[in-house]
Q: What sequence folds into this?
């Protein structure tokens, strides 16, 4: 993991810059050795010449940046575009006059000064547009992030109440039927579920341990409300290697809710099979359930699964695989995610 993280960090950029810089420096040293040998005066003159050009580039970029932060944003991005272009004409004239003054106003340098002036003004104009494009891009990324967060909050708000009402209804039916020892246990499980829902869903990610604990409590509540019948089969397997990993909260529950909603029938044989495996940061989640003929038309079109598909695309782009299929009265969901470690 440490080796892979190197390629996704600034260290790679620094390594490449050092490699290229070292290579060019070595070539430059060899070239100077061939041209000047041990003549310190010649080598010193060359480096002074090189330093002057570096300072010139720094000066041009600094002036371009000042133009971008000042006149470019004051005038060009407002209704006073003519003011900005007037400023550029004035800057062109001042630059040309400065070059002319430096050359003693000699006629033979006029064409050279015109070319240098045009290059300088071109750099100033181009720098402004490029810098502004980066600024707009940054603002778009911030807006996209804000939109994504708003969408995730909206999706979570659609999932949470639906699940809580189902759980409350289960406990109400159990308590209404008769007083028994199951009620206190169910209430305790519901309290843990509500605590998780209210606390963890305010975060972008929660630990895999908390999500598994939440899933187990939900399954216990659902199984408690169902009658013990041999025609109804529920198989659950959860395997976790214990390595720290994070997952978006309430990401798996809609698939489980869907299985209990459409996979349980008291009139015919029905089943739910669930397997969750997390190993090395790779999550594999498989849910398979029967479908009653009455539910076949609605299966797979609920809000919950659509919400999960949107969340997966927003949170795990290019890091997940989701397969949802219906065949011969059986509904299959297979989900794979590369989790955040």
A:
């Amino acid at each position: 993991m440490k080796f892979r993280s190197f390629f996704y960090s600034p260290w790679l950029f620094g390594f490449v810059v050092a490699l290229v810089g070292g290579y060019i420096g070595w070539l430059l040293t060899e070239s100077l050795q061939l041209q000047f040998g041990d003549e310190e005066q010649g080598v010193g003159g060359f480096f002074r010449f090189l330093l002057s050009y570096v300072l010139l580039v720094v000066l041009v970029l600094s002036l371009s940046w000042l133009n971008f932060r000042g006149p470019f944003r004051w005038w060009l991005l407002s209704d006073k575009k003519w003011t900005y272009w007037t400023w550029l004409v004035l800057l062109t004239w001042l630059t040309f006059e400065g070059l002319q003054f430096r050359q003693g106003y000699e006629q033979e340098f006029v064409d050279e000064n015109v070319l240098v002036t045009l290059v300088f003004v071109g750099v100033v104009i181009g720098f402004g547009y490029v810098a502004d494009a980066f600024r707009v891009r940054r603002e778009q990324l911030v807006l996209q992030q804000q939109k994504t967060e708003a969408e995730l909050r909206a999706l979570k708000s659609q999932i949470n109440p639906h699940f809580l009402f189902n759980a409350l209804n289960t406990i109400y039916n159990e308590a209404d039927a008769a007083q028994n020892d199951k009620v206190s246990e169910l209430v305790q499980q519901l309290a843990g579920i509500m605590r998780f829902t209210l606390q963890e869903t305010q975060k972008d990610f929660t630990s895999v341990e908390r999500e598994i604990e939440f899933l187990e409590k939900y399954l216990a509540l659902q199984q408690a409300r169902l009658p013990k019948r041999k025609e109804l089969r529920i198989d659950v397997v959860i395997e976790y290697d214990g390595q720290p990993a994070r997952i978006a909260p309430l990401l798996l529950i809609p698939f489980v809710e869907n299985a209990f909603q459409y996979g349980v029938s008291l009139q015919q044989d029905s089943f739910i099979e669930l397997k969750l495996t997390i190993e090395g940061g790779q999550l594999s989640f498989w849910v398979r359930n029967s479908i009653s003929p009455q539910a076949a038309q609605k299966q797979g079109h609920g809000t919950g699964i659509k919400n999960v598909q949107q969340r997966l695309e927003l949170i795990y782009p290019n890091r997940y695989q989701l397969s949802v299929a219906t065949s011969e009265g059986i509904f299959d969901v297979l989900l794979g995610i590369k989790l955040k470690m």
Observations:
- Residues 110-177 form the longest helix (68 residues).
